[in-house]
Amino acid sequence: MKNKKIIKGRVVWLTGLSCSGKTTISKELIKYFKKNKLPVQWLDGDVVRKTINKDLGFSKKDRDENIERVTHIAQMLAENGVNVVAAFVSPYRKMRNFARKICPNFIEVYVECDIKECIRRDTKGLYKKALAGKIRDFTGIQDPYELPKKPEIIINTEGKKAGESARELISRLERLARWPKYTDHINDNSTRS
To answer: Which of 18, 26, 90, 190 is catalytic?
Structure first.
């Protein structure tokens, strides 16, 4: 009996400020993988924080632990042939580099958006609370977001509909990774979350 070689999955890691468009774009990317019948798992910061990492706060130590745990999950999935779409603020370069080091086929996507636009998009009122001092250590306000030095892809979401940003990312991924093409299903009227 021959052993089948497992083709490792890709880890597409979306990073950027809160409300930059990571979650919305990542949801469209998940649809893309599914339409192409590619195995995929979505890891989103809000979802992970409410489930497997609900024991963590937002200190630097806890943020690092959050990303370390998620990185190990992404690594295990990718090693077993599952593509991973990870959407996390992941504000510290050190932890993004850690993910890059241990995850196979790692692609860092910087979702770029001016903080003023992120504040305008914020439906949860997190920036307002942070600016009023009701939330401490909020990334982009009291705590820094360390810009990626050499991300594989930069997607600027300002002035674009969510579907347009998602199509741009998928097109760039297709060129970068020779993936099957499938962008017709993306709706320009997707709402950002």
So the answer is: 90
